[in-house]
Amino acid sequence: MKFLHTSDWHLGKRLENVSRMEEQRAVMQEICDIADSEKVDAVIISGDLFDTYNPPTEAVDLFYKTLKKLTNNGRRAVIAIAGNHDSPDRIESPDPLARECGIIFAGYPNSIVMPFELESGVKVTKSEEGFVEIKLPDVEVPLRVLFTPYANEFRLKSFLGHEDSEEEMRNILQQKWHKLADKYCDEKGVNILMTHLFVVKKGAEIPDEPTDEKPILHVGGAQAVYTENIPKQIQYTALGHLHRKRLVSDNSSPIIYSGSPLGYSFGEANQKKYVIVIDALPNKEVVMKEVELEKGKKLLRNRAESIDDAVLWLQDNQDALVELTMVTDDYLTAEERRRLNNSHSGIITIIPQVKNMNILNYSGKSNIDLSKGIEELFVDYFKYKNGQNPNERIKDLFKEVLSS
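Now predict its structure.
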């Protein structure tokens, strides 16, 4: 059995005020081409299908056309779950029509996939809350999928039937996953888990969430889940949320974030993007293949000490989207900004870094360092107004508001 893992499409997302739809169309077609060339039997999409609860029409249109292509006229199963950017109801609303194409949607942790069978041979053979078993054409063994779409901690506990507010969410998930795995995931099929949650090794440093991403680990959000919570029967765990490809665990059962197909913030500058193709047999270690995506513009950051240096660099990087930091003695003039913008059509942001700090002095009360990021500037402002740094809860709330 062969399947492809992808996530965090964020269809409809813009970079500042710049549309990415043409790039998204190109990379969606590239993913379809990879699925065909690799002859995969199923496609796993681990959440954040759209960028907002109410995506633009062109993003919705691209989404359904892409899934239709991925099904290979109903001969390939496609399983997609909701992420923290998605409306669960929107994801599940086309379910009756989607099933006719071999597409399985799950918006909630307690979603139940309705049984169906296509003439192509795609068939749902078993189903329960958070679990589905699928028979695939030309594959002798079934694919078993434990799935947990995103929900905050309160909703997860409610969906999974636990009213004890003191019990940790990760323990509740472990109980649910282990119960399903013990019931369905024997050695006669391929067993995988797909979820849109923060999964880390216990005691390991938690990686940063993507810049401008709606955070999961925030006030009212969801706890991190530990790798030890995943049942031993699971052969591969397909994660969504982090935009950089990240192997959380490389033991006999890989746990991996496939990452987003495009760079969506300058925190992802120079990142390579991938989909993961997996070869799997029952009761065997899977074989992973990272396939690099080539479509879409690179995101580049550069720091220049002069307008001439900046123009030369911009001319050498015409196919990228650019964040440019300009180091100057004084503010940039209108003519200098015009010269920069005329040399490159893909400048998203120009950040002035003014060396003459005297012009940044406001009544002798504060100096504002314009080279800092918005979160650092918020901390500086909070300290200036309140005489102390904001605590972690306030910083998390600011990040949540900023992402919205």
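The chain has ten helices and 22 strands.
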